[in-house]
Write a structure and sequence with these properties.
alpha/beta, 3 domains, eight-stranded mixed beta sheet, seven-stranded mixed beta sheet, 12 helices, 21 strands, 32% helix, globular
Length: 481
């Protein structure tokens, strides 16, 4: 048999195993609210090829490809356990099992590693928490996709309504069409129908009421059967506590802003300071996409090396805030054509660091350039460290952070030598460390951090909403803090 024959036979074997994984993953997800991950990447609703590619990607961060032949026994072991709602990482199970020297079987090791999600320790399934989207633009529609995707997964969030200003004839049909098709993120994964008579969008069985209002004060959400909901404001129109408090209407318990908050509004970056949210806090912000991209790696670097000062330069995709063609704009430069120019502008991400990382004493400055791409940005984080380091040391440290640390859902890591911005469309991480571009010289480190400023940020928003809803399920095996 030739090498080519061996490779093809191996592929067919792995393909067959991946096919057999799909119903097991689906059953755990649907019946027990268990989300199966592989190095923090969900395997739920993934195709055979996607499952195999996710296993192969482990080579980028762990140094070796992870085979489905290695992870399948752990998945089978999970199906035999009395599991409660949780997230379970097959990649971590396989990695930790290899390092374990006690001679346990896969079943024994798995039962021990996920004991916190079984038997008397398991969390009982909760009733879904109502969510309302106020505004239905770029972030609003992506958050809607994520909420619909997770509706049956045990994350406990149920999108009940969206609030928009009336747009005239066939408004709801047009909004549903924008949810169904996206020029950047592709087709909606599922089915969408519209009931114009009841002003309802039904997406994958989720009935979403479309409420038309020009002012938060005009809406009583209890009239639509909505109770104790979390409202996500995607408009950015109100950013301080006084303005956002207008949303605290009958039926709404908490308000989450998808823009940097002003004044005493807490700016929350999931993975970094989400555990500081007080249970009685009704208003909070998810900061900006750039803040979410730079704060997790900044925390990681400060924890290990100490950071004395830093500067972040973001090369950012253009947004709807800019003009397609030259026209009047209240801000400097943003009136010039977005798809035709690089546009120097400001970023509030550097100043927002202090809210998310109050213990960081380093001064962080920042600036930004908008460039003619529709999505995915890069932050160049230039740091003066408290001690000297080598490039190899920082490289290996950040790879390990992306693989095993509590920040692994926020920080990704890539070694591909020809990676470009479009490769990161749809990334669910807050930022991705580009290993090939990393520069370290003594006490100076320069990190190049890619981020999908639309989808990656939307994932962070949903994580914050899950946390404040009390429906953020624990991940096993548990990571050391």
């Amino acid at each position: 048999m030739t090498v080519n024959d061996d490779s093809f036979t191996n592929w067919k074997i792995r393909e067959e195993i991946a096919e057999s994984m799909i119903p097991l993953i689906g059953k755990l997800h649907r019946e027990r609210d268990v989300t199966v991950l592989l190095h923090s990447r969900s395997l739920v609703n993934k195709s055979v090829v996607s499952i195999l590619k996710t296993h192969r990607f482990a080579r980028q961060i762990a140094g070796a490809e992870l085979s489905v032949t290695e992870t399948m026994p752990f998945l089978e072991a999970l199906t035999a356990l009395d599991l409660g709602p949780s997230q379970i990482d097959l990649g971590m199970l396989a990695t930790m099992y290899k390092a374990d020297e006690r001679g346990l079987s896969v079943a024994e090791f798995t039962a021990e590693a996920v004991a916190g999600a079984t038997g008397a320790n398991k969390i009982e399934r909760r009733e879904p928490r109502d969510v309302v989207l106020y505004g239905f633009g770029r972030i609003g529609r992506l958050v809607a996709r994520l909420l619909i995707e997770k509706a049956g997964s045990g994350n406990g969030l149920r999108l009940r309504a969206i609030v928009v200003r009336g747009g005239g004839a066939q408004d709801i049909v047009k909004r549903a069409s924008l949810l169904r098709r996206d020029s950047i993120h592709g087709q909606f994964q599922g089915t969408i129908t519209v009931d114009e008579d009841t002003s309802t969008i039904v997406a994958n069985g989720n009935a979403i009421k479309v409420i038309y209002a020009d002012d938060p004060a005009h809406v009583d959400y209890t009239e639509y059967g909505i109770r104790d909901a979390i409202l996500i404001d995607n408009t950015g129109k109100w950013r301080d506590r006084e303005g956002l408090s207008k949303h605290l209407r009958p039926g709404i318990e908490k308000v989450v802003l998808t823009a940097p908050g002003k004044g005493d509004v807490p700016n929350i970056v999931h993975g970094v300071n989400h555990d500081t949210v007080k249970p009685d806090e009704q208003i909070l912000s998810c900061a900006s996409c750039t803040t979410n991209a730079i704060v997790p790696p900044l925390k990681a670097m400060d924890d290990e090396y100490g950071v004395l000062r830093g500067h972040v330069e973001t090369v950012h995709s253009f947004t709807n805030d800019q003009n397609l063609l030259d026209n009047y704009h209240k801000s400097e430069r943003r009136g010039r054509s977005a798809p035709l120019n690089m546009v120097i502008t400001e970023t509030g991400a550097a100043s927002a660091v202090a809210k998310a990382l109050p213990d960081l004493k380093a001064k962080i400055s920042g600036s930004s350039i908008r460039v003619p791409v529709p999505d995915v940005s890069i932050a160049i984080l230039n740091l003066q460290l408290a001690r000297e380091a080598t490039r190899e040391e920082v490289h290996d440290y950040l790879r390990e952070v992306s693989l095993t640390s509590p920040l692994k859902r926020q920080i990704d890591f890539i070694t591909a030598p020809d990676a470009v911005s479009s490769d990161f469309i749809g990334s669910r991480h807050a930022s991705i460390v580009d290993a090939g571009a990393l520069k370290v010289d003594g006490d100076n480190a320069i990190l190049y951090l890619w981020y999908d400023n639309e989808f990656g940020y939307s994932c962070q928003v949903v994580r914050v909403v899950q946390h404040v809803s009390g429906v953020e399920y624990p991940t096993f095996p548990a990571m050391a803090v």
